[in-house]
Amino acid sequence: MLNNEQKVLSWFRDNDVLVLDRGFHDTANTLNRLGLQVAMPGFLHNKKQYPTDEANRTRFVTKNRWVIESVNGKIKQWKFMTQIIQNSTIRFISDYLDIICALINKYQFPAVIDIENGREIAMNMREMLTTENRLQTRLAKHTGTTSLHWSKHKAANFQFPPLTEENIRDLTFRNIKLIA
């Protein structure tokens, strides 16, 4: 990529974001130096949990990565793509991938059926990306700290409110209708 030998950089447009998994963490700085914006889940680095803003950002990236992993899974259903690929076939891999993807697009169901609902979910997630953690704020207000000491209780001693399917969908960003 640094030499742009295959004109890879011409594939990108202004404001494109590369949504990567953690396996690319060694390349993130190089990609940034090339002027590319990178999004990848965070690392805990010896912490027990992320701060709210980092947890929200990581969830946002992970939700977007799901689509990529779904497509990768469909590609890996093809025997050729599950094995070690010989160096002599690398020059043809792009053609093979085009053929496999064309067959997937023609004969398999799409991973996401309701794209408009997906856009709504993305907009909600984007809005919530910078939303404060109200529970954490409330705890800090009442206890003077955001850390808690947990104790065990029996669920039978509590009455939980019933949740409708609509309640659950709202809590989970109205999950996109999927076909497994």
Provide an overview of this structure:
- It is built from seven helices and two strands; from the N terminus they run βαβαααααα.
- The longest helix is centred in the middle third of the chain and has 24 residues, at 52-75.
- Among the domains are: 12-41, no CATH class; 45-134, no CATH class.
- The protein has a two-stranded parallel sheet with strand order 1-2.
- The chain is mainly alpha-helical and 180 residues long.
- It is 44% helix and 3% strand.
- It has helices at residues 28-33, 52-75, 79-82, 93-107, 115-128, 134-143, 165-171, and strands at 17-19, 37-39.
- The chain is extended and about 65 Å long.
- This is DDE Tnp4 domain-containing protein.
- One of its GO terms (molecular function) is metal ion binding.
- It comes from Rotaria magnacalcarata.
